[in-house]
């Protein structure tokens, strides 16, 4: 149930234009200091997870790694996605709250 709320809100973040989808867009946004939250699929490669967790530490950005690439993709109208970053502070906070309720 809470997982559904998280994924629905993620879709809302996309519609609001507050989400960067994919490896390159997320990486560029993080390096520019525009990321408030990183979401990594549990299916992402170990190298990808290591790289984005390193960015998270360096730029002080929280990370959620709890959903499959298909779950994330489905919330965004795609078959799958491994890396996302949220660019809005309020939406990031709400997604973290929903995720905390889930776990």
TrEMBL record:
Please indicate if the UniProt record lists Ribonucleoprotein as a keyword.
yes
The record's annotation in Gene3D superfamilies points to: 3.30.1330.30
**Keywords associated with the record:** Ribonucleoprotein, Ribosomal protein
Which positions fall inside the Ribosomal protein eL8/eL30/eS12/Gadd45 domain? 6-93
GO annotations of cellular component type: ribosome
Q: Does the keyword Kinase apply?
A: no
Q: What is this protein called?
A: Ribosomal protein HS6-type S12/L30/L7a
Q: Name its species.
A: Clostridium pasteurianum DSM 525 = ATCC 6013
Q: What is the lineage of its organism?
A: Bacteria, Bacillati, Bacillota, Clostridia, Eubacteriales
């Amino acid at each position: 149930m809470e997982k559904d709320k998280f994924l629905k809100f993620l879709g809302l973040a996309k519609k609001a234009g507050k989400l960067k989808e994919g490896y390159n867009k997320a990486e560029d946004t993080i390096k520019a200091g525009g990321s408030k939250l990183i979401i990594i699929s549990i299916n992402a490669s170990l190298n990808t997870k290591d790289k984005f967790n390193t960015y998270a530490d360096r730029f002080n950005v929280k990370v959620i790694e709890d959903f499959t690439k298909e779950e994330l993709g489905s919330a965004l109208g795609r078959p799958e996605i491994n890396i996302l970053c949220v660019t809005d502070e309020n939406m990031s906070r709400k997604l973290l709250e929903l995720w905390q309720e889930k776990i």
